[in-house]
């Protein structure tokens, strides 16, 4: 594919992610922090987010599976998840975490289980989208092009 | 390019238990030409600061960014509020209670907007309270705090006001990592500093320093244009 065509798809795809609320301005901040001296910054941070999220989702499933649910522990996990999703701009995951925490406060196991499913779903969705976006980035770089900047979203 | 800006850079110690946030803060600060050390807990921060009760030793083997000096004076501590073990608030208190450390400006970050928490931190001596995630616009607010203490320390410890000029000149020469964003940051910063200058003109040193800042951004920018052509 032509570099310009790849760059156009990159812009369209990213705009879509912002429009549909998968990503917010914080992701633009990450993109702004990526430059020639740090060409893999977004990739590194997003990869850390994936690792973190997989671990947290696993821990949450275990914690909610106990006879006596430790809501304090669950809240600590969700708090972390909310923090990391907000740091990378995964807006819909963050929103799902906020709802999760209110059920935690109510000590509502059913509510928490429902939220866990929702958080998981939102996470898997944004993960797929981010992976596609990073692939596009790699293709652009491999074709010798520059990653388009998307200042209009910041 | 990028290696020149080592002399007289401000050195920030960033404390956060989240690796993602440490990465983010480190990058944000380095983009603004700060030298950064990150640690994942309040106790490691105190260790890095050389806090052993009364004794202080500013040397450490902790993870230091590549462009480092032998001696690393910390010009500012920025810490997350919510951490397991020692919280950011505890760390703030420890620093402010120490005769050796209390002059280091401390900035607290938190993902939660809890007014009582913010008030408590500011009352305990924090310079700023940032809501996470931290943004480039927040980084601009750090420099004035560091300038104030740097010159305060110079006059107290060395009694050499000439240092001021020396530092200014060196910073003009160090055109390291400048890009367009940097220029925007600098401009925003000068505006901000001018604003704070008019609010606070009884501190002569501070006024002098801030008065110089707008000029300093220009040589950096013209160097950038020369380099990119």
Keywords, please?
heterodimer, A: 154 residues, mainly alpha, Four Helix Bundle (Hemerythrin (Met), subunit A), 6 helices, 75% helix, 0% strand, elongated, B: 229 residues, alpha/beta, Rossmann fold, 2 domains, 50% helix, globular
Secondary-structure-based class of chain A equals mainly alpha
CATH superfamily (homologous) name of chain A: HPT domain
Physical arrangement of strands within the biggest beta sheet of chain B: 2-1-3-4-5
What percent of the residues of chain B sit in helical stretches (DSSP H or I)?
40-55%
Low-confidence segments of chain A: none
Find the count of extended strands of chain A (DSSP E, 2+ residues).
0
CATH class of chain A: Mainly Alpha
In terms of per-residue confidence, which ranges of chain B show pLDDT below 50 for 5 or more consecutive residues?
A: 1-7, 54-70, 159-182, 197-229
What's the rounded overall pLDDT mean of chain A? 94
Query: What's the helix count of chain A?
Result: 6
**C-alpha geometry of chain B:** globular
Work out the radius of gyration of chain B: 17 Å
At the first level of CATH, the class of the largest domain in chain B is Alpha Beta
- First-to-last CA distance of chain B: 15 Å
What is the chain-wise order of helices and strands of chain A? Answer: HHHHHH
Largest sheet of chain A: none
By helix and strand content of chain B, what is the structural category? alpha/beta
* Main beta sheet of chain B: 5 strands, parallel
Number of strand elements of chain B? 5
Rounded average pLDDT of chain B: 72
CATH homologous superfamily annotation of the largest domain in chain B:
Response regulator
């Amino acid at each position: 594919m032509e570099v310009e065509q790849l760059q156009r798809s990159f812009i369209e795809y990213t705009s879509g992610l912002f429009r549909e609320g998968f990503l917010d301005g914080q992701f633009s901040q990450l993109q702004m922090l990526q430059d020639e001296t740090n060409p893999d910054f977004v990739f590194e941070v997003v990869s850390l987010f994936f690792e973190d999220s997989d671990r947290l989702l696993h821990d949450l499933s275990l914690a909610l599976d106990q006879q006596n649910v430790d809501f304090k522990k669950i809240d600590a996990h969700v708090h972390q998840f909310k923090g990391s999703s907000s740091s990378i701009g995964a807006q819909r995951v963050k929103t799902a975490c906020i709802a999760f925490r209110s059920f935690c406060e109510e000590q509502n196991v059913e509510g928490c289980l429902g939220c866990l499913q929702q958080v998981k779903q939102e996470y898997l969705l944004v993960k797929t989208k981010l992976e596609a976006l990073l692939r596009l980035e790699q293709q652009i770089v491999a074709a010798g092009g520059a990653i388009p900047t998307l200042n209009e979203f910041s | 390019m990028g290696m020149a800006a080592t002399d007289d850079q401000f050195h920030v110690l960033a404390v956060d238990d989240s690796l993602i946030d440490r990465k983010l803060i480190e990058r944000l600060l380095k983009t603004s030409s700060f030298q950064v050390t990150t640690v994942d807990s309040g106790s490691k921060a105190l260790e890095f600061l050389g806090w052993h009760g009364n004794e202080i030793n500013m040397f450490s083997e902790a993870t230091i960014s590549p462009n480092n000096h032998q001696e690393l004076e910390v010009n500012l501590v920025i810490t997350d509020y919510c951490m397991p073990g020692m919280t950011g608030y505890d760390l703030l208190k420890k620093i402010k209670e120490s005769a050796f450390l209390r002059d280091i400006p401390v900035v607290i970050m938190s993902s939660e907007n809890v007014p009582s928490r913010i008030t408590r931190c500011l009352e305990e001596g924090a310079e700023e309270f940032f809501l996470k995630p931290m943004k480039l616009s927040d980084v601009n607010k750090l420099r004035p705090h560091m300038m104030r203490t740097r010159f305060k320390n110079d006059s107290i410890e060395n009694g050499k006001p000439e240092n001021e000029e020396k530092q200014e000149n060196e910073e003009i020469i160090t055109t390291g990592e400048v890009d367009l964003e940097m220029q925007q940051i600098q401009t925003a910063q000068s505006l901000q500093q001018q604003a704070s200058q008019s609010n606070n003109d009884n501190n002569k040193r501070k006024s002098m320093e801030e008065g110089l800042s707008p000029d300093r951004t220009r040589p950096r920018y013209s160097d950038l244009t020369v380099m990119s052509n």
